[in-house]
Amino acid sequence: MDKIILDVDTGVDDALAILMAVESGQLEIAGITAVNGNVPLEQVMVNSKKVLQLAGRSDIPVYRGAGQPLLKGAFHEFGVHGDDGIGGSLQNIVPRVEDPVLFAPDFMIEQAKKFPGELTLIMVGPLTNLALALRKEPTLPQLVKQVVVMGGLVSESGRGNTLPTSEFNIFADAEAAKIVFHSGMPIKLVSLDVTMKTFLTKEHIEQLQGSLYYDFVMKSTEVYRKYSMDNYGQNGCALHDPLTVGVVLDPSLVKTAKYFVDIETKSELSYGQTICDFLHLWKKEPNIEVCLAVDADRFTTLFLDTLKKQL
């Protein structure tokens, strides 16, 4: 059973990723770490605890992390996730658990040292917490088993979701992403190139009828599905963050290859762009295992079957 920390900025797909991780039965979740991103940090804390409470897993601690990016101002995605980040759902749940005192980056360091070579970091928000942990503990890359990152856009420039060249998680703190990508950590990148192919439709959600999560998934995705309809002509939402959990559960869901990848932090036109040197023009050693293709249907089935366990 993989020991993980799940780092989130809990909007809708983060919430679905938490549920998938919890219900998989295959992951030992040491804790959830919260970071500013889709919504402000305090809302991330509330949302994460609400989702865990819905799943009956309030025993999993949620650690408060970075409340703002390393250098730039905070950037949020209310238009995709709703004013509260989870589409106005779970209004009847009041979190009951007090927050741990330990700062999220310190928790990452603590767990990596406690379980050297065993810990997987699943990063589905901006990479601020991990960048701070790396700055404090330079040996961290040698201590973790792997880092699986949802972020970036490597082969379809112009189809970003923040700038034409850029994906939200990287754009929200590109300086942090650059630190992480150059850290020497064993990183697998789950980018928009594959996550946009994993689309949860309204018809898919109907398959959850009778389960504990049907009402939540239907309600929480309303704003997200409207955004997708307006922009892509489809009544559904991409399963960005759940796929990142899925890649840990079953690596065979994706095809990967190693390349040198860097992050643009200076250009106004392409801040946050994830640049992959497919042709090895820079003559640098590969630093990222990039997901290039996904078995989307098999993943969507896995996601639905995992949440149906509560039927």
From TrEMBL:
List, in alphabetical order, the GO biological process terms annotated in this UniProt record: purine nucleoside catabolic process
GO cellular component terms listed in the entry, alphabetical order = cytosol
Instruction: Cite the Inosine/uridine-preferring nucleoside hydrolase domain residue spans from the record.
Output: 4-300
Q: Which UniProt keywords apply?
A: Glycosidase, Hydrolase
Q: Is ATP-binding a UniProt keyword of this protein? A: no
Does the record carry Hydrolase as a key word?
yes
Note the InterPro entries from the entry.
Inosine/uridine_hydrolase_dom (IPR001910), IUNH (IPR023186), Ribo_hydro-like (IPR036452)
Q: Which Gene3D superfamilies does the record cross-reference, listed alphabetically?
A: Ribonucleoside hydrolase-like
Designated name of the protein: Nucleoside hydrolase
One GO molecular-function entry: purine nucleosidase activity
Cross-referenced Pfam families: IU_nuc_hydro (PF01156)
